[in-house]
Amino acid sequence: MKRLAALLIVMCLVLGAGSGALAVNESVRGELVIYSSMYQFVLDMLDDALAKEFPNLKPGSDGSFFVYGGTSRLINRIYGEMEDGVLDCDMLLVAEPALSLELKEAGYLEPVTVEGAAENLRFPYDEEGYWYPVRVCNMVLAYNPEKEAEWAARGVNIPKTFEAFAADRSLKGFTAMGDPMSSGTTFAAVASLTQTNHYGRQYLRGLAANDIQIISGSQSIKMIRSGEIACAMILEESVLKARHDAGEAGEPITDLACIYPEDGVILIPSTVMTVTDEHSRNGNADACRAVEQWFLSEDAQKIILNGFMHSVFRTMEEIPEGSVDTNELIEKDLGVNWENVYHSREEINLAWTEIVANR
């Protein structure tokens, strides 16, 4: 009888704890819109998880919690909305941390307390709680291992560094990258590589001299595999997903691989932000706080990993399928001066346009 009574007590405690947690989630109500630059398949996973976690929270964008767009395009949209003082969203999850600094200074962000942030996060965050990193994108190079000998026979060298990607003239006409005017991660890579402590504006001149093709990541992957280009600057997650999807379809590929540049990778921690009631579409900062805290939970971080991005958790040993150890990448990170990016955004865009886009 004593064992049975003890078991009943434990069951009551467990059920009580479970119902208490559910009650907290059920109390989160209202409408929510999040601007995000994450790929749609990741947003679909997050939509499903948020609907289960917050059953009384209403998706504010055609049945989704998210409005998708490239970071640079979302930034332009945000700038337009700031002219009226109200953003058409309640939260932001974009790939370019300089925006967090800008919106904080402009008074558009609501501070959120995330318990254990100092112990759990392996990337910087705002100590006042105005923004936290949620996912980490990794800019690398990609190539076709099966065609490396063919390219060598044509006198084309597959670059092992970001420096060679722009400086080696054997690559002229055979390289590609995204457009920093629409992609925040590409913008971040350009900002990093053109820093004076890296390669400066000469890097842009090198890209222009090599007749760099400005195309999407998916186009780059197709052209790498077909042999139309030798190499591309691309997000690691794009390569990992392409390889995963092919394997899932029963057609594994061996003609696409990442190069982790010897002069360093470029890690881009994407931040989550809550907009103040005064400046947000739905004035729902209380719900946003709960959602922001959930983004920094183990459940949410596992979705990030399933999206082929790296976790921000210090204790998360798992890595995206097909990648390398996150802490190893951190040691090789070239870094981005986000404060400089914030204050020099227009200058960087102008340099890109004049030197590369309008060459």
Secondary-structure-derived class: alpha/beta
Mean pLDDT across the residues is 92
User: Element order, helices and strands?
Assistant: HEEHEEHEHHEHHEHHEHEHEEHHEHH
Helix share of residues?
40-55%
Any idea of the CATH class of the largest domain?
Alpha Beta
**CATH fold topology of the largest domain:** D-Maltodextrin-Binding Protein, domain 2
How far do the termini sit from each other? 84 Å
How does this structure look, described?
By secondary structure, the chain is an alpha/beta fold. 45% of the residues lie in helices and 14% in strands. It contains 15 helices and 12 strands. Helix 8 crosses helix 15 and helix 9 runs parallel beside helix 15.
Characteristic terms for this protein:
D-Maltodextrin-Binding Protein, domain 2; alpha/beta; disordered N terminus; 15 helices; single chain; 359 residues; ten-stranded mixed β-sheet; 2 domains; 14% strand; two-stranded parallel sheet
Give the arrangement of secondary structure elements.
Layout: H1 2-26, E1 30-32, E2 34-36, H2 40-53, E3 57-59, E4 66-68, H3 71-82, E5 91-94, H4 98-105, H5 117-120, E6 132-143, H6 148-153, H7 162-167, E7 175-177, H8 184-193, H9 202-209, E8 213-214, H10 217-226, E9 231-235, H11 236-248, E10 257-259, E11 266-274, H12 285-295, H13 298-306, E12 310-311, H14 326-331, H15 338-357
Parallel strand pairs: 1-3, 2-4, 2-5, 7-8, 7-9
Antiparallel strand pairs: 5-11, 6-9, 6-10, 6-11, 6-12
Helix pairs in contact: 2-13, 4-15, 8-15, 9-15
